[in-house]
């Protein structure tokens, strides 16, 4: 198992319900701080313990988009639940917006979209959002104004007065996203936000996350969809079986290892590469020659050798290692991590310790 890679404007709704833009001064602390956080579940009958999240630590600066990436059963949802106080941690500490996680105060200015949201489906989306807003302390007028704005923002305008029992999975996901945005949170947690969405819906949610980032909202979302993480996140944490494998910006993570390299040269006479470049592909390209290296890290040495032999380098390009390449390297020996650790706490402690 590889070691861990170490690599504000805000919109408010005043009492009249009209959104305005205000500049929020920097708080001086990260939006999320996690230190040695972990969670074990004990089976109620066998008393065996399952570690859902091992000891993990990370920070999320204010205004950034942070991704928790991993396959099913990696510990992403359990981590979010601990941060929100829905599941008590077995060890470690966390803070949200400078407040101890798990306290009622820590949930102020925080929005949450669970992976499978549930609603009072006899209500319409507008009724549900207005009800939720008033429960959160908003005035009726402000709740109605913000609910009307949010159903349009998430693409439910035409179905805003339809009872939610008639909604499709994708429509319910949009309603859940609107619910998470009620109150204009400073910190937003999204658990698999693209679940059930068609390509158009996924694009709209991606655009909304980018818009929230521009507004200074901190977004933390979990996903196993590599494209979403690679295109949306400033920083990424990769989890496997509850352990933190990698943490950093995409540039930092993808710089650890190189993609391929391709060069076009104007050869001087015949060309035969020395044995240290075995595996390189040589192809004619008109009067020139194209050389492809599977490992871009050897490109500099090859360029030096070619120039020393009198060959002219016409072009040189490198392929950046993709997040998929990194992910497959880390999980190539694991077909399925899977399982719900909160219901399947079946692995003995001795077995866990022996596997470390």
Describe the structure.
The strands form four sheets. Strands 1-13-12-6-11-10-9 form a seven-stranded mixed beta sheet, sandwiched between helices. Strands 5-4-7-8 form a four-stranded antiparallel beta sheet. The protein folds into two domains: 5-255, P-loop containing nucleotide triphosphate hydrolases (Rossmann fold); 261-318, no CATH class. Helix 2 crosses helix 3 (140-153) and helix 3 crosses helix 4 (169-181). The model is unreliable at 1-25 and 336-356 (pLDDT under 50). It contains ten helices and 17 strands. The relative contact order is 0.17. With 356 residues, the protein is α/β, with parallel strands linked by helices.
How is the topology of this model organized?
Blueprint: E1 5-6, E2 9-12, E3 20-23, E4 32-42, E5 49-60, E6 65-69, H1 76-84, E7 91-96, E8 99-100, E9 110-113, H2 125-135, H3 140-153, H4 169-181, E10 187-191, H5 199-214, E11 218-223, H6 226-232, E12 235-240, E13 243-249, H7 250-255, E14 261-266, E15 281-285, E16 288-293, H8 299-308, E17 312-318, H9 323-331, H10 349-354
Parallel strand pairs: 1-13, 6-11, 6-12, 9-10, 10-11
Antiparallel strand pairs: 2-3, 4-5, 4-7, 7-8, 12-13, 14-16, 14-17, 15-16
Provide tags for this entry:
356 residues, alpha/beta, Rossmann fold, 7-stranded mixed beta sheet, 10 helices, 17 strands, disordered N terminus
Can you describe this structure in just a few lines?
The chain is of the alpha/beta class and 356 residues long.
H-E string: EEEEEEHEEEHHHEHEHEEHEEEHEHH
Largest sheet: 7 strands, mixed
Can you name the CATH architecture of the largest domain? 3-Layer(aba) Sandwich
Strand order of the largest sheet: 1-13-12-6-11-10-9
| Domain unit count | 2
Give the overall average pLDDT: 83
The low-pLDDT segments are 1-25, 336-356
- Helix fraction? 25-40%
Distance between the termini: 9 Å
Mass-distribution shape: elongated
The portion of residues forming beta strands comes to 25-35%
Quaternary: single chain
Counting DSSP E segments of at least 2 residues, the number of strands comes to 17
CATH superfamily of the largest domain: P-loop containing nucleotide triphosphate hydrolases
Specify the structural class: alpha/beta
Q: Give the CATH class of the largest domain.
A: Alpha Beta
Radius of gyration: 25 Å
Q: Please, how many helices? A: 10
| CATH topology label of the largest domain | Rossmann fold
């Amino acid at each position: 198992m590889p070691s861990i890679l170490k690599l504000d404007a805000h919109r408010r709704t005043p009492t009249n319900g009209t959104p305005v833009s205000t500049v929020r001064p920097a708080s001086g602390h990260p939006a999320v701080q996690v230190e040695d956080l972990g969670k074990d579940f004990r089976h109620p009958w066998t008393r065996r313990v399952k570690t859902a999240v091992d000891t993990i630590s990370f920070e999320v600066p204010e205004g950034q988009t942070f991704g928790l990436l991993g396959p099913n059963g990696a510990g992403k949802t359990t981590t979010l639940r601990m941060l929100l106080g829905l599941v008590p941690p077995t060890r470690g500490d966390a803070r949200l917006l400078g407040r101890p996680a798990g306290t009622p105060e820590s949930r102020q200015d925080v929005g949450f979209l669970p992976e499978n949201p549930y609603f009072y489906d006899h209500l319409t989306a507008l009724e549900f959002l207005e009800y939720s807003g008033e429960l959160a302390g908003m005035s009726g007028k402000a709740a109605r104004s913000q609910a009307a704005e949010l159903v349009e923002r998430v693409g439910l305008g035409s179905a805003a007065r339809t009872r939610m029992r008639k909604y499709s999975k994708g429509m319910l996901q949009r309603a859940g996203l609107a619910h998470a945005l009620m109150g204009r949170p400073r910190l937003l947690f999204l658990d698999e936000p693209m679940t059930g969405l068609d390509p158009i819906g996924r694009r709209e949610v991606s655009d909304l996350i980018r818009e929230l980032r521009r507004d200074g909202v901190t977004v933390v979302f979990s996903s196993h969809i590599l494209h979403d993480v690679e295109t949306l996140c400033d920083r990424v944490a990769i989890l496997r079986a509850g352990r933190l494998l990698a943490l950093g910006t995409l540039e930092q993570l993808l710089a650890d290892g190189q993609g391929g390299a391709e060069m076009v040269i104007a050869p001087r006479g015949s060309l035969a590469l020395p044995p240290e470049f075995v595996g390189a592909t040589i192809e004619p390209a008109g009067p020139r020659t194209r050389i492809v290296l599977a490992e871009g890290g050897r490109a500099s040495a090859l360029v030096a050798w070619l120039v020393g032999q009198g060959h002219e380098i016409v072009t040189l390009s490198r392929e950046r290692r993709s997040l998929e390449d990194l992910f497959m390297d880390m999980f190539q020996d694991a077909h399925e991590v899977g399982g719900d650790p909160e219901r399947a706490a079946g692995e003995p402690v001795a077995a866990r310790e022996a596997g470390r």
